[in-house]
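Lecture notes, unit on protein representations.

Consider one protein chain, 122 amino acids long.
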Amino acid sequence: LAGEILGKPDNAEHAQRLLRALSGKTHEVLTAVAVACRQRMETALSSSAVEFRNLDDAEIRDYVASREPLDKAGAYAIQGHAATFVRALTGSYSGIMGLPLIATAELLWRFDIASNFKGSRD
């Protein structure tokens, strides 16, 4: 967010600060994947933009009280209640959750792994 890396919150108060910072703004989620086999390694980077609607202090407090955001980077789980915070999303939903499936599959295809699924690339 604005050049700052938002990791997992240290505690509930930190989670509230992170969510207030995200409120009403768009942030970028970067998720890297690497596949290595023998002497070969390839990587991919998934980039997604997530726009949050404006959040009020009460809903931030209630969300943090649920404990859902306490072990999540950026203090939210897009697959949980925080899905209601997201006004718009561009990029990889699965990458925001943690593992960008398209980028991962493309890496595996480069290694000729998961070749049974090559017909479904498009």
